[in-house]
Queue: 2 jobs
Job 1
Amino acid sequence: MSEKIVEIKNLVKRYGDLLALDHFNLEINQGEIFGLLGPNGSGKTTTINCLLSLLSFDKGEIKLFGEKMAPNKYHLKKEIGVVLQNVAVFEGLTVYENIDYFCGLYINDKKLRKQYVEEAIQFVGLEDYKKMLPPKLSGGLLRRLNIACGIAHKPKLIIMDEPTVAVDPQSRNKILEGIEELNRQGATIIYTSHYMEEVEQICTRIAIMDKGKSIALGTKEELKKMIKTGEKLTVEILQLSKEHKDCISKLPHVYQTEYQDNNLVIYFNGGKHNLVRVLEYLGENEISFGRVFSELPTLNDVFLEITGKQLRD
Ligand code: ADP
Ligand code: MG
């Protein structure tokens, strides 16, 4: 059994009348890159803030490293690195001084601290900006500084709340690669995002959140197996009679077809050789077609099928 780093049981958090967390449960094992995926307002940041004891909650229990978390548990807090959703750095301190300050909260030894700060700067690629003040940095570089401040002291658990929002693609890739590297070096990661592509790319397990609840949990493969859609095929056809559409609807594994704007969309619940069968049918019936493309289900499809809503609106 791997060690449980995070255990959240039946967490309830209200803001006045609003139920932000509704008996939320979560367990994260050592070594995971755990993704909390959910639309804006689903309760990701509230979960993180409760986890860190930055926010009190109404009901439930939170354990970190097997121990009950509380605001005064500094020995637990020092094992955690936090990258909050809103960038939190000192505008009057340089890049180097900012990282040194946050690292200094946990690392007393001067020599070791210098080494850690330099490593963090290298890690996020800010070598050329050490003496710069944060207001001079671009959005992406500022995010990287925010990350360096959170991870410099080499925590065992790293929590990142939407670290790539409004970040250019280059910084974004640097951040995602960085997270994987931190994980390889031994850190357990909690990563929140409303970008399904990112979560799919880096996370070992994912909890999909909606309205303060965890509505699905698993690896991306497991999540995709929970839903009916196995493959979605789009074929550009200028003219398709109702008869032909009905016949295609009866091909093996097809559970739904839509014909709109000269595009036939065919949904399959799994199965193999779906494309070949469709192309054979079109050929045999001399139906001419243009572009064809096949898509495997995304985490948005999972969210859509469970909630009836798009992940991003
Ligand atoms: P996410 O991080 O997934 O976007 P949040 O945890 O920030 O979601 O918010 C969950 C819900 O709680 C939302 O409906 C949000 O409007 C509400 N909320 C968050 N913070 C506060 C607050 N300080 N006061 C009142 N409502 C809040
Ligand atoms: Mg948030």
Note: The chain has two domains: 4-219, 232-296.
Job 2
Amino acid sequence: MPANPQTVVNSWNEWNPLKHVIVGRADATMVQAPEPAIERNWPDHGFPRGTYGRLPPAMDAKANEQLDNFARILESRGVRVDRPTPLDFSQEVRTPDWKQASMFGCMPPRDVLLTVGNEILEATMSYRSRWYEYLCYRPLLEQYFREDPNFRWEAAPKPRLTERTYRKDYWRKWEKMTPAEKEQAIYHQDWVLTEEEPCFDAADIARAGKDLFVYHSSVTNRAGIDWLRRHFPHQRLHVMSFYETNPIHIDATFVFLRPGLALSNPKRVPLVPELTDLLKRNGWEIVQAAQPALDGYPPLSFCSPWLSMNTLMLDPKTICVDAQEVRQMEQFDQLGLEVVPVPFADVSAFGGGLHCATADVYREGTCEDYFPKQIEGY
Ligand code: ABU
């Protein structure tokens, strides 16, 4: 097949003009079967602990309608949109080390794919149910590889995910812990993953040109952060952690909006003070996000109401926001951003908001230094 000059992989940050993106699909997404990393327990919605199965097809249909509409909005603004190829997520998967009764889905490409410059890196993932999720993106990555001679296609080492990768019965023990014990766990960042092997989800990384900021979360361990540091020797890598009981993915906690402006979750206090120091020292403003539309987690969702912060920048002045997040939209408006409201409330149960539902392929621009005044040791 001849090279297609229109396909170029390039994206260094979260805000430069977006020209090419992957938007996920909700098809046949599962409430995962229990596994060492996670056990769903949603008795009020038909999935008590130990059970698993497909999310109701009527929910798929509504979510896909909103995802398709989002794709059309992006296309109407000149953005090329590609979509993944879903698998049969209800199938049992196995490796020589384990078997897992179900997979998950492919709504959130941001969790799996990290774009840094001309590279797209497939994350390790840390749930067994998500071990094979990269396969949904392989048709696209193969296509980009054929069409863009400079595309660096990388995959992080697939983790073994044996029992040694996880603290045993972590979540059951968590439920029995006193508030003081939980507080200690949060301060020590003792999450379900051990340091047996590198694990990370791509959505735990926020990109700002020469600087990558990585969230030490329940799906990204210190070894994963170390692997990323060695893998990107030309970038400066900074670790972030926040006061949060269920830390998963940075994009509802701390978000770079444009050079000089970041959005912070007012309920999740940074535990690494160097993060705010670094931003302030370089003249960045950190704004506390507005109150979300919802009070709690949406039904059958592992994502918090702070998906209100889970937005997609189309360029430094234009932001896509979930249309139900009226207060957040008002705040962005006051910050001088053009807000594009996107109906997205029906997508959250499938793994996230507008940022989760996308993965960058091409944004204009090059690798710039937005933090020339560094903090030694951070
Ligand atoms: N996957 C993004 C969800 C993060 C959160 O709800 O905090």
Note: The first strand starts at residue 18 and ends at 23.
